[in-house]
Amino acid sequence: MWSKFRLPQRSSAEPVEAALLTPSWVRLLTPSWVLLLTRRWALLLLVALLAGCEGTNQESVARALAHARRLAETAKQDAREVRQGLPRGAEEMAKLWSSEANPLGDPEAARRLLTRTQSKVQDLRVAKSTFFALASLDGTVIRNDREQDRMAGRPLFASFPELARAASGEYVEALGAMPEAHGVKGKPDAEWVAAQGVRIADAIQALYVTGWAWSSYALRLEFALRGQIERELRDKKENVPLLYVFVVVGKDVYGTPESPEINARTIAEREPLAHLGADGSFSTLLDITGRRFALAVQPVPELAPQVGIAVLRSEV
C-alpha cells in the first residue's frame, strides 16, 4: 500500500537540514492525513484525561463522607466503653488492692493489679486503649500494663493538667501530648486520656488511667474501615480504593505510623474543622503528589471538643 505514496518534491526554498531530519513516514503524509490524525490523537488524549479525572470524583467524596461518619460512630462507641468501664474498673481495683502487698511501691505488683482489674470489666476488656496505668495522687506513673513501659516514673500532670482533678475521686478526660505514650517515633503524635480516682476505704489512694495515642487510634480506625470495604467488595468486580484515616485535633492532624506525612500536612492546610459545611462536615477533592483524593472530615464532639475523623479515598 505504501507504493501509492510519492515522496513530495522538495522545493528549492526548503532547507536541506529540515528534509533530512523529518521522519520519512511524516513526509509521506498529505495535509489531510495530518489533520485527521491530529484530531484523532487529540480525542484520545481528551478521553484519557477525562477517564483519569472521573476515577476519583464527587461520588468518591460522598463515599469518603459516609466512611468518616461511620467511623465517627465507632469513635463514640470507643469513648463510651472507657467512660463506662473506667469507673467500674476503679471499683474492682479497690477490691483487689489488698491482694497486692504494695501497688504504689512495687511496679510489678502494680502491673499485676492493672491486668487483673481489666479482666474483671467487659468494657475494659474490649476497650481500644493503647495503655492502662496506675499513678500516684501527684500524677507520677507507677507502671502501665505494657511489657515495655516508657511511662513509669513520668509525671502525667505536666502533659495533662486536667487529670489532677481525678485525685478528688471524679472521672476526668483530657487531651495532651506525652512522648512516652506516643504510638510512633519521628512523627507528630498526641493522646486522649481518662483517669478515675481509686477509693480505698474512705480515701482516694491512686489514679486509674487509660487512653490512646492518636496515631495508634488512626490505625485502629483505618484497619476497621479497610476490612469493612474489603468484605463489601468481596463478591463484586470492583477494586478496593486507596484509603487513609486521620484524627484531626484542632489544627493538628495525626495519621497512622505508615501514612505519608504529606497527607497529614495537606489536610491540616485546609483547616477542615474551621470550615465545616451546612451539614456539619467538610469534604472536597484535592491532589497530593499528583494523585487525586476525596477528603471528608466528620467532627466527633462526643469524643472531645475540636476532634474529627478524616478519610482520604482514591479510586484504583
Summarize the structure.
38% of the residues lie in helices and 22% in strands. With 316 residues, the chain is an alpha+beta fold. It has a five-stranded antiparallel sheet with strand order 2-1-5-4-3.
Give an overview in words.
- By secondary structure, this protein is α+β, with helices and mostly antiparallel strands.
- The strands form two sheets. The chain has a five-stranded antiparallel β-sheet with strand order 2-1-5-4-3.
- It has helices spanning 16-21, 24-27, 31-55, 58-96, 107-120, 122-125, 214-232, 261-270, and strands spanning 131-135, 141-144, 171-176, 191-200, 203-213, 242-249, 252-254, 282-288, 291-299, 307-314.
- A hairpin with a 2-residue loop joins strand 6 (242-249) and strand 7 (252-254).
- It has two domains: 57-66 and 216-314, Beta-Lactamase; 79-213, 2-Layer Sandwich (Beta-Lactamase), CATH 3.30.450.20.
- The protein is built from eight helices and ten strands.
- It is elongated and about 65 Å long.
- Helix content is 38%, strand content 22%.
- Helix 4 packs across helix 5.
